[in-house]
Amino acid sequence: MTMRNRRGVFIECVEGDIADQPDMEAVVNAANAELRIGGGVAGALHAAAGPGLEEECRPLAPIRPGQAVITSAHRLPNRHVIHCLGPVYGRDQPEDVLLAACYRNALHLVELRRIRSVAFPAISTGAFGYPVEPAARIALSTVLDELQHLTTARHVRFVLYSAQDAMLHGRILEELHDRT
Ligand code: AR6
């Protein structure tokens, strides 16, 4: 686990399951455009949340790459789910701009709803094929940049599914944080 503190916000990278983050007020979903169940992160979150989540999502769909919408968390141990549609690598262009927009728009909702803690998965790095290292650089640098606009958030957690991805994110967090 790697942790850093900037502007009073605690940022960490941990190995774990995004559907099992009971101390976080909001969790972020790596959604599909239709906000349907799907696999990976979306599958895990919808399975734990129960069918009410998909029902609440229905009138909000479809969403575009880079967009984020917020719902309640139903049976998940959180208050909110923020659904982001990441870019499909090699198809949705410019993919770096669209991936950064996911994190920025999610944090905009965090600020609007006065959320104190939020957990992100590595959006687009599974079924959507974005290579993990460039995706991690975009994710972490966007979050570090956006901290200046956050007045309520105190804790941002990146939840990675493998030890290798957690170590990679941790190394990039140290590098970006300690450089600036
Ligand atoms: N907790 C944390 N990370 C996870 C979990 C989990 N439970 N499960 C997978 N990951 P993906 P995407 C990691 O495919 O690339 C869906 O089917 C995974 O190893 O969930 O944005 C949707 O319906 C990878 O590093 O999201 C969409 O159609 C990362 O989370 C599409 O896939 C993201 O993998 C979205 O694709």
Can you describe what's shown?
The chain is of the alpha/beta class. The chain has one domain (2-179): Leucine Aminopeptidase, subunit E, domain 1, CATH 3.40.220. It is 37% helix and 21% strand. It contains five helices and seven strands, in the order βββααββαβαβα. β4 and β5 (80-84) form a beta hairpin. α3 (95-112) runs parallel beside α4 (132-146) and α4 packs across α5 (163-179). The radius of gyration is 15 Å and the shape is globular. The mean pLDDT is 97. Residues 17-19, 30, 32, 38-42, 44, 86, 121-128, 159, 161, 165 line the site of ligand AR6.
Topology:
Blueprint: E1 2-6, E2 9-15, E3 26-30, H1 40-49, H2 51-57, E4 68-72, E5 80-84, H3 95-112, E6 117-120, H4 132-146, E7 155-160, H5 163-179
Parallel strand pairs: 2-7, 3-5, 3-6, 6-7
Antiparallel strand pairs: 1-2, 4-5
Helix pairs in contact: 3-4, 4-5
The chain binds ligand AR6.
